[in-house]
Structures are given as C-alpha cells and as structure tokens.
UniProtKB/TrEMBL annotation:
SUPFAM superfamilies: P-loop containing nucleoside triphosphate hydrolases. It is found in: Cell inner membrane. It is a peripheral membrane protein. One of its GO terms (cellular component) is plasma membrane. Pfam families: ABC_tran (PF00005). The keyword Cytoplasm does not apply. It comes from Rouxiella badensis. Keywords: ATP-binding, Cell membrane, Membrane, Nucleotide-binding, Repeat, Sugar transport, Translocase, Transport. The keyword Cytoplasm does not apply. Residues 6-243, 253-496 form the ABC transporter domain. This is ABC transporter. One of its GO terms (molecular function) is ATP binding. InterPro entries: AAA+_ATPase, ABC_carbohydrate_import_ATPase, ABC_transporter-like_ATP-bd, ABC_transporter-like_CS, P-loop_NTPase.
Amino acid sequence: MENYRLNMQGITKIYGNVAAIEGINFSVIQGEVHALIGENGAGKSTLLNILSGVREANTGEIMVDGEVVKMKNPLSARQAGIAMIHQELQHVPELSVAQNMFLGRPLTKYKGLFVNKKAQLERARTILKQLDPSINPDEPIKNLKVAQQQIVEIARALLDDAKIIAMDEPTSSLTPTEFDRLAELISDLKSMKVSIIYVSHKMNEIFRICDRATIMRDGRQVGVVNIRDETEETLVSRMIGRKLEKVQHHSFMTDRDILQVEGLGRGDDVLPATFSVRAGEVLGIAGLVGSGRTELLKLIAGIDAKTCGGIQVNGRPIHNLNVSSAIKAGIGLVPEDRKKEGIIKQRSVAVNMALPKMRNYTRAGMLQKSKLDQAALKVMSELKLRPLDTEKHIGLLSGGNQQKVIIGRWIAADTQVFLFDEPTRGIDIGAKSEIYNLIERLASEGKAIIVVSSEMQEIMRISDRVLVMREGKIAAELTGEDISEENIAQYAINAVFHKK
Ligand SMILES: Nc1ncnc2c1ncn2[C@@H]1O[C@H](COP(=O)(O)OP(=O)(O)OP(=O)(O)O)[C@@H](O)[C@H]1O
Ligand SMILES: [Mg+2]
C-alpha cells in the first residue's frame, strides 16, 4: 500500500444531485503508464480534474507517496508534484512559449519585483531541448502546431519536477507520427521514474504504451488490469459491459447523384476537385493530415470561399455559395473542431442541437419549446447521449457527448448532404458503432454522405467508395476490392496520379 506513488480513495463528486463519480479508488505505481479508460461521460476527466485541484471532491482522500494531500486548488496539486495536460489545451495564445510555461509562477529578480525574462527563456530552452529542439521558446505559442503545444505542456510539467503527469486524451488531434514522438517521450519520462496517467479512446495506443489500466463505467471504478493480460476484445468488453459485435458494411448506394462537385478549389490548398456523391452513398475521404480534406469539406459547406468551380445539389447549382445558401440547399457539416466551430457553452443541449435550423422551431418569433425538446430527445436517445438530459448546458457534458450533440444537429435538420469531418474523434469505442449505424441509416434513407477520417479502419468500415487526397489533390479513387489499407496508404503518401 505505502509504495503507491498516487493513491486516491473513495473519491466522489456530485453535481446538483447527481454523482458524476462515486467512491472511486485509483492508484498508480512509480514509473508506470496507467491508462484510465471508460465510455464518454464515465467520469475520467472529472477524476483528473479533482486530482489536479481544478475541482474539489465531495468525499475521498488523495495520497502522494503515502502522504495525504490537502487539495484546495491547482497550486496544491502542483506542489504535490502533480501535473495535468487537459483535454482542451489551455494557454494564452499571444504569449510566448516560455511565458506560457512560467504562467502563474514566474522566475523573478530584484526581490520578486520583476519577471526575469532572460532566466525564464534559458530555463525553457534547456527543458525544451530534451523534448523537441525545433520549438523556439521565444515564439508566440499560437504559431505552434497542436502537437508542439502539447510538448510545451509536458515541458511545463517537467519545470515543476512533476512526479505524476496526467494526460487527458493527448492525442485526439495528433498525427500517427506525432503519437510516435509522444510515445518516445513517455518512455523517457518513465525511465525518469515519472508516473503517467493516460486517458484515451484509442486501443492501439493503450496497448502500445500502457502497463496497467483502471476501468470506469457510469462514474464507478469497475476494475484494474494488467494490459499484458488483456486483448483489445476483453478490455473493450470490460469497459462497455458487453461484447462489441462486429458489423459488416452494408451498401445502400443508388445511381442518382445528389451532390456534384465541379472543379471546386481554393488556391493551392484545394486544387480543382471534381466528383459526385449519390443518394445512399457513403464516400470516404482519406489522406494525411494537411492533405486538404478538411479544406475541401469547408468549401462545399460554404465556410471558406472558393476560388474556382462550384457545386450542385439535386441538379441545381448553388450560385452564391456561402454558409447560408449551403444550409438552405441541404448541406450540413459536422466539423472537426467542435470547440471553435460548434457550440454555445451556456445554452442547453436542445438549443445547441437546433442551432442551424432554429426557424423550424419558432413560430411568430416564439420558440416552440416542446417541439424542440421532442426533436432533441429523439435524436439524442438514438445517439445514447449521457445523461439523456436535453436541458443541460452543453458545456457541462463530457467531451465525447458534446460531439454527439453536434452530430445530432444535422440529423434533426433536414439535411440531404452530410459532411462528417473525423466524426468519431473523442468518441468511445462503444458509441462509435452507434455512429456508424447512424451513418448507415442515413444512407438507407437516401442521403449523400462524405466522411473524412484519419482512421483507416473507419474508412474501410463505412465507405462505398474512397477518395484519397494528397497535397490538395484527389490522388486516387478506390472502389470495391481496391479499398485496402495498402492502397490508401500508398496513394496518400506517393505522388501517384489517378486518371479517370
Ligand atoms: N460542471 C459540471 N456540471 C454538471 N455535470 C458535470 C460537470 N462536469 C462534468 N459533469 C458530468 O459528469 C459526468 C462525467 O463527465 P466527464 O467529463 O468526467 O466524462 P469523461 O469520462 O471524461 O468523458 P469523455 O470520454 O467524453 O471525455 C458527465 O455526465 C458530465 O455531464
Ligand atoms: Mg473527458
């Protein structure tokens, strides 16, 4: 018992009159990588927020190296050697890397009167050099890629000589190569005897870097396992409390074009693209991060202005392509970054879901609340929103559940053309198959669907046809047997041009 680096006992957190987590026991050994897993809303972030002093537990005890820590605020956590990398990164974009690293605890000179910028810069440089020498500590942090911003967070943790570093879904926006780098970094931290708590919905990551896992379900701790004793299947069934059924791809493709994209482009980002999507078809778009996939979707949805070409929906050209004409034509985009493009935190789930088509729920300027609630409840129960409460402010939902509301939004609006950008990012493995089923249902109803995804398995599971993008171009179109991991990877990486 006494050799636990971290030992949390009987932790309960109540919001209103509901326990978000209840009686959680969670302990971590020195130098291990410990996964914290569970479905969306299971309470992972809540537990980590308590560990890092962001929230106060209603009951329970936190011990570091056998000593009870009085957790009053983030400072108490820091002093106890606990650092946290949050699900949504928090920095001041305009400040430099070094300034962000020393935020709230500057190095000072002249008896604490002035910030010692030079010393901060030097210290930051020394630490960053071990982690990623390409990061300039003097650069405004907003200029860095997300992966680098994450490295800065880790550097910040090292500044404090953290003994425990908790990472809440650190790779949700990293590329596979960036994950490799993080994995290396974690292994270095391990050899420095730092304990890592790792939250992720990605099983391959957990099997690659974690030693043990604590499983949470509905706010309770339901098990602690050694990763090497598990398979992906056993771990998932512990997590969701049932076996995950394997589903085959069903095709509902017809031969009627709904969306026609003709020479649509924007400067060098998206070179003129021509393709169509049929009623009942799911078109996957694969490619590396930065290959122009998101940009292409944004052009179709009228978010970014095109510089050439155009689109037609049901044979009707959209003359003045912008967000409102696109929505009017029945196009809906589920964006990659819900925080920037998606939600109003202080409003209810129902209102957030209705946003693009608020007019459907108002009469003579008055909100028809019962109509709205009914619509929201229908979609949200289909997506298994937890809690199934359409009145709750969306900002209070777990990350994955917020994503579900945004997906639900376009289902409730009468959308013809669905554009999904990384639809299951941050979504737990059980809810993923619900989203696949839903996409399939939309296809069976004759909708046209485009899915951009970096997950090969996902593309293969749901697509009738796959476009592979590379450097702003459509490099290949794959159908039938040709849709394979090898083909996708080859076209995504090599400059092979496909002639139609
Ligand atoms: N400030 C709050 N007020 C009310 N309820 C909250 C608040 N913060 C979290 N909750 C609720 O606590 C529960 C656990 O949420 P938490 O964010 O810990 O889940 P999670 O396991 O991190 O999920 P995800 O994988 O989606 O990130 C959810 O039902 C959530 O709605
Ligand atoms: Mg979370």
